[in-house]
Amino acid sequence: MLKLEGKDELAKYNEAEEVSTVIENITARKLFNSRGEETLEIDISTVSGFGRASAPAGASRGKAEVISYPKGKVDLARRQVEELVAPELIGRNANEQEEIDLLLHEIDGTEDFRNLGGNTAYAVSLAVAEAAATSYGMPLFQHLAGYFADELPCPLGNVLGGGKHAGGKTPDIQEFLVLPINAESFSDAASANVLVHQRIGSLLRRKDASFTGGRGEEGAWAPNIKSEQALQIVAKACDEVSEELSVECRIGLDIAASTLWKQEEELYVYDREGIKRNSGEQLDFLLSLIWNHNLIYVEDPFHENDFESFAELADKARGCLISGDDLFATSKKRLTRGIEISAGNAIIIKTNQVGTLTDAWEATELARKASYVPIMSHRSGETTDTHLAHLSVALHCPIIKTGVMGGTRVAKINELIRIEEILGDRTKMAVLSL
Ligand code: PGA
Ligand code: ZN
Fold first, then answer.
1. Phi, psi at 432, each rounded to 5°
2. Is residue 59 lining ligand 1, measured as CB closer than 6 Å?
3. Which atom of ligand 1 is nearest the CA belonging to 217?
């Protein structure tokens, strides 16, 4: 900091402190996500700041998502950033987020980002936002949402699972989740999730001495176990931890039902358990799980085009969040269709399902206006990027779904702990209205 002595010094100080968000340089590189798949990372320098963002990837992707990468994959995406995107963006202001996101759509020219790649748009959009934030010397969440963004999300943590995220004889249900709903701080909530995860590990080892401690894509335990047994173990761990920490830990599930649905048979096929269910049976099965285990959250209970069954379940399972991931694919258009018939009451927000930050923001706003709970979510393939933490606060999501264990998951949790420290006494925990 300059020492101010008289007018000339003050003028010099102002000059030195002048901020410019004008974009000076863009670089794209190929690196790896947590599955070892290639992905894209973007660096953006402004006159006063710098932003870096890399794109995640899904394993159980919705059909309505934008295309992740063009046909030539990450190499082509990288070339296109240099040849098509950089010339358009250099010289523009990084704080014009909406205009830049619109420009990305224009450069691509398609509905589903098939030319540039949705992941390319995602990494550029996020790097632009961060470059603007650092230009102002602000944390990303504050740059996007302002001083009054002071509410932290409850962490929805994946503690046990199977489906597309783990092979062998793991459960057909993709994710068994824990959600602490009344923790006093984010750190307390995160500790509760860690403890539940650890407790489940001990219970699994006690139940089956041959359990190798294997974990799936998102760091959740991947045991050889049936869904009902898995639920009992998760329930026991949640009960114990709730009592020990005086934090209410509730259970959720991500059925990822599109991965079970066989269109030819019109049945949900639970391969590993040897059970098939038609839509009516699937509804009854889910209602029994919700009632028997007091579930607070069920994601993708039906396949991605069955809006009507989502509506029926949400109507019957009052007090439980019925959330659309593959169903909505973070798309305003699909969410609008859902809102018309009250298909579910919550939506997963995965920014790379739609490409840009502005698109994700618009879907989140639409959700909130219709009293749908928006949940900021990771993908199964992640990098150690921490923007998700900032987006959950900036987009006012009362829940963040980002795993419990593993470096790429903990990176987001730890960033929220840092945000909690930045907010200090002003921090509030989100209250879930069910
Ligand atoms: P993903 O899905 O593997 O496509 O990221 C995770 C999820 O279904 O929530
Ligand atoms: Zn899902």
1. -90, 120
2. yes
3. 3
